[in-house]
Amino acid sequence: MVSTNVTRQDSAVSRLDRERLQRHRGAVLWLTGLSGAGKSTLANAVEARLHALGCRTFLLDGDNVRSGLCGDLGFSLADRHENIRRVGEAARLFLDAGVIVLCAFISPLKEDRQRARALAPDGDFVEIYCKSPLAVCERRDVKGLYRRARAGEIADFTGITSPYEEPDNPELVLDTARRSVDECADAVVARLVAQGTVPVSLQTA
């Protein structure tokens, strides 16, 4: 649905102006994977490293967003679509501000992730698949969500009663069951340096 009777307003300060001031480019880092795959843990580790390098960052986490911006949504298919649509739009705003925004969401459906990708210019959307077997995710489940889902107490739970569609061509696939958080964070930062989002000069400053 598109709002009517609105006119987009351009800013006197462009994204490029903001990026020049902060000495790095903006980007959307989209971490996807099953509950318990380590998305939030990895996103926090990456953000801490980028912050230490002097990068402007912001982390959009699934639970945090659902407690505010998307607090009115449930977990039906329609609500899942709307949840990721809102997050994608929020990520686009951060990107325009020149920020490296980290989005840690199960985002189980390919079409929703593709819609979020389409909002960013080519090369600015980095899909990171946190790949972990379901059994490992269940063992890590300190909240007991998988147990409750298997007991029928939680409906539409991804990986149990609702599908997870693996990414076809993500920029990064990280085996979070076998690789440490530090190793995975190293891989993400290295990707950002390789693609020019984070200049090498920041690492050596």
Automatic annotation (TrEMBL):
Cite the binding residues for ATP.
G33, L34, S35, G36, A37, G38, K39, S40
EC number from the UniProt entry: 2.7.1.25
Q: Which reaction does it catalyse?
A: adenosine 5'-phosphosulfate + ATP = 3'-phosphoadenylyl sulfate + ADP + H(+)
Q: What is the active site of this protein?
A: S107 (phosphoserine intermediate)
Which keywords has UniProt assigned to this entry?
ATP-binding, Kinase, Nucleotide-binding, Phosphoprotein, Transferase
Enzyme category, top tier:
transferase
Q: Which residues form the APS kinase domain?
A: 25-175
Matches recorded under CDD domains: APSK
Q: Which GO terms describe its molecular function?
A: adenylylsulfate kinase activity
Superkingdom to which the source organism belongs:
Bacteria
User: In what pathway does it function?
Assistant: Sulfur metabolism; hydrogen sulfide biosynthesis; sulfite from sulfate: step 2/3
HAMAP family according to UniProt: Adenylyl_sulf_kinase
Q: Which NCBIfam families match?
A: apsK (TIGR00455), PRK03846.1 (NF003013)
Concerning its family, UniProt says: Belongs to the APS kinase family.
> What's the stated role of this polypeptide?
Catalyzes the synthesis of activated sulfate.
Protein name listed in UniProt: Adenylyl-sulfate kinase
Native species: Massilia solisilvae
